[in-house]
Amino acid sequence: MMLKKITILFVVATLFSCNNGFSEKEKEEYTLKGKEIAQASFKALSTELMAQMKAGGPAQAVPFCKEQAGPILNEVASKYNVTIVRSSDQLRSCKIEPTERELDIINNYKNSVAKNKELKPIIEIDATNNKHFYAPIIVKANCLVCHGKVNETMSVKTDSIIKLTYPFDIATGYSEGDVRGVWSITFNE
Ligand code: HEC
Known about the structure:
Bound molecules: heme C
Shape: elongated
Strand order of the largest sheet: 1-4-3-2
Low-confidence stretches: none
Strand content: 5-15%
């Protein structure tokens, strides 16, 4: 009888040790995969962006982002069989809307930055059984040209170039180290 109780306890404990429906092993695998995909996406975007900035400054790089950021991300996404979104609570492009979960995660990351805590990627399964990876997008010095504080780290001219294309832009005012948003990757398999 005692043994049976212990066995049941053990089974229950094992079940609950699975994190959000993931086994520890799966969690590790998907975290690695998500990190790899986020890095590949960042690299694909920033390589192109830097080349455009060098060739023609913001006047060339901004329209390029508008036309090409989506297709560049889609290419990485189809290679890995995932959906890739760069979500934010301060969006420039109105093609996307943050989900409630993304907003929650962004707020948690902001709190962690404020408390100097480490920001870790998140892996979870939602109610419809989709697997998600989230990781912070942090503002770097070279992002400020187009996302910085107008008249301080970002020129009024660049702001007006951006406002022409994105009249409702609210993705400015950032400082280095701020949370710009999240990589939100959904695995398709
Ligand atoms: C040349 C100007 C420029 C630079 C430099 C730049 N961005 Fe952007 N960023 C844009 C534009 C334009 C968009 C809107 C793209 C679109 O229409 O899909 C954008 C969109 C984004 C988005 C998607 C969410 C949104 O608001 O639409 C994120 C996240 C982002 N940028 C982060 C960064 C980070 C991080 C850096 C630095 C590593 C950076 N950006 C550098 C111009 C720039």
